[in-house]
Amino acid sequence: MRFPVWRVAVFIVTAVWPLLWVYQAWADVLGPDPGKVLVDRLGLGTLILLLITLSMTPLQKLTGWAGWIAVRRQLGLWCFAHVTLHLCAYAAFILGFDWSQLGVELRKRPYIIVGALAFLCLLALAVTSNRYSQRRLGARWKKLHRLAYVILGLGLLHMLWIVRADLKEWAIYASIGALLMLLRIPPVSRRIPRLITKKQSPATKA
Ligand code: HEM
């Protein structure tokens, strides 16, 4: 492995946070409504991990370091793990595994439909993230993985629907997301390496 320390660090950081939150909910130290706090933290964790995953390609272009791309898939899979825990925490703490309440819940919290759509897209990306699918799908793999942008839009809409009046925190994530999307527009993306190569010495360019 070329970047073991970096990969192990990513593994530890992304695994420790959700486990700590689940432990805190179990130990009842998350306030009067630990289930809701856990669902919110895991939802926010998913969105933050999605933004971090999407920033790997621009960072690689900016710095020229291949390590960013080496951890991109791992981060994407952790994003899926977080959203799965988010969904499980919702089913356990808010729904109480009472599936007969799902219809009422969807009318009461329609943003869940948006979250569920994002979850299904993330599932499609997680299932096809392996090299076998990459080989089998060929050029279609890249197109399919553009779903990450749709997931970002759905995730932000899901959060906006929840926070409504308190837009400050949402605006930070939305701005980072907008910047990351901007950096993917071909004329902008083409300029990223040019900006950096001007500052690079001939030795580092080789
Ligand atoms: C089936 C899938 C999903 C369900 C059932 C679901 C459900 C929920 C629920 C019930 C809440 C708490 C609402 C409240 O505080 O009243 C929530 C919050 C949240 N969810 Fe989801 N969600 C899903 C998918 C997602 C996805 C895919 C993302 C991100 C890409 C996401 C990000 C968030 C965020 C950022 C919050 C708000 C956290 C905060 O207020 O600090 N959720 N979700």
Characterization of this structure:
This protein is mainly α. The chain has one domain. The protein contains 13 helices and no strands. The protein has helices at 4-26, 34-54, 56-63, 67-70, 72-94, 102-108, 111-127, 131-137, 139-144, 147-163, 168-182, 186-199, 202-205. Helix 3 runs parallel beside helix 12, helix 5 runs antiparallel to helix 7 and helix 10 (147-163) packs antiparallel against helix 11 (168-182). The longest helix is centred in the first third of the chain and has 23 residues, at 4-26. The chain is globular and about 50 Å long. The two termini are 23 Å apart. The protein binds protoporphyrin IX containing FE. Protoporphyrin IX containing FE is lined by residues 36, 39-40, 43-44, 46-47, 50, 83, 86-87, 90, 94, 109, 112, 115-116, 118-119, 151, 155, 158-159, 162-163. Protoporphyrin IX containing FE binds at residues 36, 39-40, 43-44, 46-47, 50, 83, 86-87, 90, 94, 109, 112, 115-116, 118-119, 151, 155, 158-159, 162-163.
Which features characterize this protein?
single chain, 206 residues, mainly alpha, 81% helix, globular, binds protoporphyrin IX containing FE
Number of strands: 0
Total individual domains: 1
Continuous helix count: 13
* Percentage of residues in strands: under 5%
Question: Which H/E pattern describes the elements?
Answer: HHHHHHHHHHHHH
Helix content: over 70%
Nutshell version of this structure?
This protein has 206 residues and is mainly α.
